[in-house]
Amino acid sequence: MADKLNAVKGMNDILPPESARWEWLEAIVRDLMGRYAYRNVRTPIVEHTALFVRGIGEVTDIVEKEMYSFEDKLNGEQLTLRPEGTASLVRAVIEHSMLYDGGKRLWYTGPMFRHERPQRGRYRQFHQVGAEVLGFAGPEVDAELILLASALWKAIGLTDVRLELNSLGQPPERAAHRAELIKHFEAHADTLDEEAKRRLHSNPLRILDTKNPAMKDVVESAPQLIDFLGAESLAHFDGLRAILDANGIGYTINPRLVRGLDYYNLTVFEFVTDRLGAQGTVCAGGRYDDLITQIGGKPAPAVGWAMGIERVLELVKEQGTPVPLPVPDAYAVIPDAAAMPVALRVLQQLRDAGVRVQMHASTVDGLGSFKSQFKKADASGAAYALVFGADELARSELTVKALRDGSGAQTVRSLSDVGAWAATLQSPTLLH
Hints:
The two termini are about 40 Å apart. The chain contains 14 helices and 18 strands. It folds into two domains: about 20-170 and about 230-320, Bira Bifunctional Protein, Domain 2 (BirA Bifunctional Protein, domain 2); about 325-430, Rossmann fold (3-Layer(aba) Sandwich). Helix content is about 35%, strand content about 20%. With about 425 residues, it is of the alpha+beta class. The longest helix has 18 residues, at about 20-35. It has an eight-stranded mixed beta sheet with strand order 1-5-6-11-10-9-7-8. Strands 14-13-15-16-17 form a five-stranded mixed beta sheet, with helices on both faces. The protein has a three-stranded antiparallel beta sheet with strand order 2-4-3.
């Protein structure tokens, strides 16, 4: 016997009934994106490594430590499994000149890949939903994206999620802040860990995001970027806050919120929870007006967010939110294989009419007894059993037996006009 092969560590199978949770969330996301007039984009999983080096930042943790990169043995190209979705989407927008006729509201979903330590809600293959707005510069689209995310939490019943905001200003403001930040950390070099010392001159802003408790005081006392913002940056931030206030969206200003990617400017935000341990961010994003030029496009403003599907579903589970499971409306009980041609013709007619029907099928041991088939029908979750007995078929009929209302009521239906009674079998999807 061949050796058993398992999935790669941190890359998980999603199986029924868990996959139903995913379908439920994806359907809500699709509907919501449509209501906000966002259009779907699908990009390749594999991109040129240079896209992420340029787009994410060479001295970020993602590029330095976490990317799955390899050389294409057929042509020597340096390729990478995408670690996030924004850079790919921006590449597609540039490549296909999507902004030639004005700004765009776009969204994506799919798997991403980072070589991290697998933990709750965070895996090496993980899935994101992202919403991106390109070509619009005002704070109203920043606000719209936050309102969209808030509407999603409401639609799926999440309550234990809070919004944190910050502004990173513009590059000259960040440069002035950066210089003061370096001075501050140099003056406290003895308290910095090795990671912080390495970041000190390449990316000191990332030191503010440290999880090392020993550096808490030196980080807390560091110069705050918001104190370096000019009038325009502050006006943008105030415009965003005014819209959120008008819509009753609560938030906290977190001056230490810097985000892990280098391409952000002005607005940055995170939706966080305390329910998932240290990895509490469930949705995050911000404005990235310089990314399009970094990747080779003409300058254009942009803003967006990404949401981790695994983390959101963990929260849904944690809160006990009921999620609909797909179950058949009816289960076909077929005692005799000779009835299969007629039975399947009827089942196809029912399915054409929109009825969800599961057919009993034979195993290596045959179809099984009448009693065993009814057990299968009950276990399926179906509301009705359709009994294709010999006596009924002789009269061109079948029996419909109720399985869920406690009555066990039986009704005889004609096979000559299936469409006339098909709708009576349809039932709402069950909540579990």
